[in-house]
Amino acid sequence: DPDGRYKIDMGPMSDTKTAARDPAFYRWHKFVDSIFEAFRGHLPAYTQKDLAIEGIEVGPISAFCEPDPPLKSCQDDSVNRLYTRMIEKEIITSMDQEERVISQTVMQYFPFTYRFKVDNTGEEEATLVFRVFLA
């Protein structure tokens, strides 16, 4: 009932801010993930040739956290870590055509930055796109 025509309560999955509170959310995403994995399982693996770009050399890739307040262990450049903490957060959402405030404990990560070392040894300027997948 996306436009409210039938006055049906759409539940928490209707809003991205509250969707994870619905138990069906995880089952649905597991189902979608399984479909994608089945598709991906039929694709050939990437080769070095598939990923290589002539004249472009990708060096070390790292992540650096920027906590507030700073953590001493976060400044260690030899280890890539993601630091998290639990916080109370108020989420404003609209359900049943009215705005509601929900208080929720959520996991929040300390800000971090990716660093990619890329050298262009070619003669021409190049534009690259990096996709980073967190698991």
Keywords:
135 residues, two-stranded antiparallel ribbon
What does this structure look like?
By secondary structure, the chain is α+β, with helices and mostly antiparallel strands. It is 16% helix and 32% strand. The protein has helices at 23-40, 48-51, and strands spanning 56-65, 84-95, 98-109, 112-120. The strands form two sheets. Strands 1-4 form a two-stranded antiparallel sheet. Strands 2-3 form a two-stranded antiparallel ribbon. The longest helix is centred in the first third of the chain and has 18 residues, at 23-40. It starts with 22 loop residues before the first helix and ends in a 15-residue tail after the last strand. The model has no long low-confidence stretch (mean pLDDT 80).
Main pleated sheet: 2 strands, antiparallel
Helix and strand succession? HHEEEE
Spatial extent as radius of gyration:
22 Å
Helical segment count: 2
Strand order, largest beta sheet: 1-4
Q: Looking at the structure, what is the overall shape? A: extended
Tell me what portion of residues adopts beta-strand conformation: 25-35%
What is the helical fraction, as a range of percent?
A: 10-25%
Low-pLDDT segments: none
Secondary-structure topology with pairs:
Blueprint: H1 23-40, H2 48-51, E1 56-65, E2 84-95, E3 98-109, E4 112-120
Antiparallel strand pairs: 1-4, 2-3
Briefly characterize the structure.
The chain has 135 residues and is of the alpha+beta class. The chain has helices at residues 23-40, 48-51, and strands at residues 56-65, 84-95, 98-109, 112-120.
